[in-house]
């Protein structure tokens, strides 16, 4: 009892110090309890969840819905591993999370969306919100219900006031950035005709490319996701009518069909894609890519050459999805993954720039039709404003 009290006090103290240190906003979780009745649940059967910070002032009727990322699970084994983590169960999620970058509530850090209703939807289905298998195997108790989760959360937000939105944005990073493309038109369809609706995909433009050993690793991986989660019926019919469901999980094949304005933010050398599409462990049994993948500065000339070829493939795949003026594009030549949620990428004095423009400014100008923005950076290492990711498995980063 005394111990529990003491530890609670300690937690509060640590949390207080954290608040002081970051001077940031922490937002409480909301569970969508009534979603359980319709089977709209996380992998383990727990209710889906989101964090909502209310809009204020001129933003009171504007909504930004940001979908959390966190990879996928592609088979029963990997889904079982995920089930008891925050990415598979709302029981395991932190109840308070920081809102920064595109979710920041201060104008100086988030000039165009700071006073909107800002929502972060927690990711716990492992399928970018596309799965829907009715049956639950009692031996695993795995629920493949991402598409139901999507609908249940959207219905709850509509009821909380989003149905009166003047402006609405669907955004997301990584698996959430892929989901924001996949669900972009269905998001718009949920809102009244008069609402200005646009979507933002951050680090969600995963390309269908061969790995360094010549194997199409990502295509079989995506194919397993779609099969395991029963996603086919929730992908874009305009794509699945001509291509296999696995291909319709890739933006290059389905983004051309999206009608709603879409802004794509992606590093041409996206670090997740370099690590998992170009040089996955299976394709590099001797680990010759490990050092390069952990820090782009360590890449050998032959590896940089492969990465430059990957960038060209990325650009070709990207341009397949059209250059209509409603499309926004911020394709930097950084070694990074997700540039909207972290303040230092989104909008600080030293954040990455293209044409002297930071991401927050490019996206805000595009959303409000002030200036269209479609910029592709020169090849690495030409952009001195990049914040290249360094992955260090030996040492945890300092607080
Ligand atoms: C499941 O997927 C993981 C990750 O891709 C892989 O390592 C594993 O071999 C797969 N397991 C089965 C049973 O297919
Ligand atoms: C890995 O190293 C072994 C021994 O040096 C070599 O024979 C083999 O070709 C290497 N494999 C690859 C994929 O580089
Ligand atoms: C770069 O941004 C400026 C505004 O800062 C704009 O006038 C100019 O047209 C842009 N250049 C290109 C190539 O888009």
Automatic annotation (TrEMBL):
UniProt KW keywords: Cell wall, Cell wall biogenesis/degradation, Hydrolase, Secreted, Signal
GO cellular component, one term: plant-type cell wall
Location of the protein in the cell: Secreted, Cell wall
GO molecular function: pectin acetylesterase activity
Signal sequence bounds: 1-24
GO annotation (BP), single: cell wall organization
Assigned EC number: 3.1.1.-
UniProt keyword Cell wall biogenesis/degradation present: yes
Similarity-based family: Belongs to the pectinacetylesterase family.
Function: Hydrolyzes acetyl esters in homogalacturonan regions of pectin. In type I primary cell wall, galacturonic acid residues of pectin can be acetylated at the O-2 and O-3 positions. Decreasing the degree of acetylation of pectin gels in vitro alters their physical properties.
Designated name of the protein: Pectin acetylesterase
């Amino acid at each position: 009892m005394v111990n529990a009290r003491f530890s609670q006090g300690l937690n509060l103290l640590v949390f207080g110090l954290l608040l002081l240190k970051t001077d940031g906003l922490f937002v409480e979780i909301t569970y969508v309890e009534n979603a359980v009745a319709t089977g709209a649940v996380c992998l383990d059967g727990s209710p889906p969840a989101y964090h909502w910070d209310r809009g204020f002032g001129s933003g009171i009727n504007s909504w930004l819905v940001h979908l959390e990322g966190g990879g996928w699970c592609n088979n029963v084994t990997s889904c079982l591993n995920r089930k008891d983590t925050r990415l598979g169960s709302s029981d395991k999620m932190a109840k308070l999370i920081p809102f920064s970058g595109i979710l920041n509530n201060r104008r100086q850090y988030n000039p165009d969306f700071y006073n909107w209703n800002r929502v972060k939807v927690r990711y716990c289905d492992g399928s970018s919100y596309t799965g829907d298998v009715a049956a639950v195997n009692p031996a695993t108790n795995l629920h493949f219900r991402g598409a139901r989760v999507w609908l249940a959360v959207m219905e709850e937000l509509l009821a909380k006031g989003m149905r009166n939105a003047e402006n609405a944005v669907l955004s997301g990073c990584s698996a959430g950035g892929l989901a924001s493309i996949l669900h972009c038109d269905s998001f718009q369809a949920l809102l009244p005709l008069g609402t200005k609706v646009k979507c933002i995909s951050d680090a969600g433009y995963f390309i269908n490319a061969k790995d360094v050993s010549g194997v199409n690793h990502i295509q079989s991986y995506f194919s397993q996701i779609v099969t395991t989660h029963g996603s086919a019926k929730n992908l874009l019919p305009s794509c699945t009518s001509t291509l296999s469901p696995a291909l319709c999980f890739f933006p290059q094949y389905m983004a051309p069909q999206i009608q709603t304005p879409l802004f794509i933010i992606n590093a041409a050398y996206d670090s997740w894609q370099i690590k998992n599409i170009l040089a996955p462990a299976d394709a590099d049994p001797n680990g010759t890519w490990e050092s390069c993948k952990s820090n782009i500065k360590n890449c050998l000339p032959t590896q940089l050459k492969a990465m430059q070829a990957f960038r060209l493939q990325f650009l070709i795949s990207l341009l397949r999805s059209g250059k209509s003026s409603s499309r926004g594009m911020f394709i930097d030549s950084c070694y990074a993954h997700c540039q909207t949620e972290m303040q230092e990428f989104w909008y600080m004095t030293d954040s990455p720039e293209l044409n002297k423009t930071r991401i927050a400014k490019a996206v805000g100008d595009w959303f409000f039709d002030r200036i269209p923005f479609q910029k592709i950076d020169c090849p690495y290492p030409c952009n001195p404003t990049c914040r290249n990711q360094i992955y260090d498995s030996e040492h945890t980063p300092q607080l």
